[in-house]
Amino acid sequence: MFRYKEDKWPVAIILAFSILDFAAFFLLQNIWLLAFYPLVLFIVKINISAWNHHHQHTPTFRSNALNRVLEFFYALHTGVTTNMWCLHHNIGHHVNFLDQSKDESGWKRKDGSTMGHLEYSFNIFSTAHYRAFKVGKRFPKIQKNYLIFTFLTFLIVGLLTWYKPMQGLFIFIIPMILSLFFTCWVTYGHHAGLDTSNEFEGSYNNEGKWFNVFTGNLGYHTAHHHKPGAHWSKLPALHETIKDKIPEKCYVNILIDGVPAVNPV
């Protein structure tokens, strides 16, 4: 069922939070508890975006049907639907990250200057689905699934919110928005300020143990860009084979992903 056994525990934990969400949806009635709910789980849920990212690079299950079901629950946590990152990130950003005139997650303004952190985050957040759709014009089969399952996801969220408005807002809609925005926020720290044509100098890396435990080794970002199809569990070993090519300036050591201030807002 699983393509890699290492995915069993992350998927079990993430689905457990999905069960918790639906339990809260049906059981919580107090408006203050509902408002408090996304705040309490925010730190946990923002890390789910990293696992959704990994899944859209290397599908978790051998069964397409199971992958679509998992992607629905990922979307409820992250706001990122089936094939959205495949288009925006895999086919878009990974191909173009060294060319800021094309990069779907570009950190440069049109005049060549570096965006501020907040400016970048709002820019990528507000255009994320549009950019995925635009890339999809060149890949109609992938785009078709993106459109179908995005529509179904938003339809279900809409029906849940119609049935229980406050529960739908605080348990699903707000966390989806916050998670997508925070994903864009931390993505700034992957590349911003690294203006180069050398793939080994174009990403920041974080070797911190707990950062990589929570994000599925996303700190080994140069390795990830070197072989985007490599499963997350293989990235530390891959990093060891290329670390002599990565300059010291491309390492950071903080728990929350980021880089030293680059044109801060």
Give a verbal description of the structure.
The protein is mainly alpha-helical and about 260 residues long. The protein has helices at about 10-25, 30-45, 50-55, 65-80, 85-95, 115-135, 140-165, 165-190, 210-215, 220-225, 235-240; strands at about 205, 250. It is globular and about 55 Å long. It has a two-stranded parallel ribbon. It has one domain (about 5-195).
Number of domains: 1
As a percent range, the share of helical residues equals 55-70%
* Main sheet overview: 2 strands, parallel
Indicate the low-confidence ranges by residue numbers: 255-265
Radius of gyration, whole Å: 18 Å
The side-by-side strand order for the widest beta sheet comes to 1-2
SSE-based structural type: mainly alpha
**Proportion of beta-strand residues:** under 5%
Order of helices and strands: HHHHHHHHEHHHE
Overall body shape: globular
Please give the count of helices: 11
Task: Round the mean pLDDT to the nearest integer and report it.
Answer: 93
Number of extended strands: 2
Please give the alpha-carbon distance between the first and last residues: 46 Å
Please give a handful of descriptors for the protein shown.
single chain; 265 residues; mainly alpha; two-stranded parallel sheet; 2 strands; disordered C terminus; Fatty acid desaturase
Would you summarize the structure shown here?
This protein is mostly helical and about 260 residues long. It is built from eleven helices and two strands, in the order ααααααααβαααβ. The protein has one domain (about 5-195).
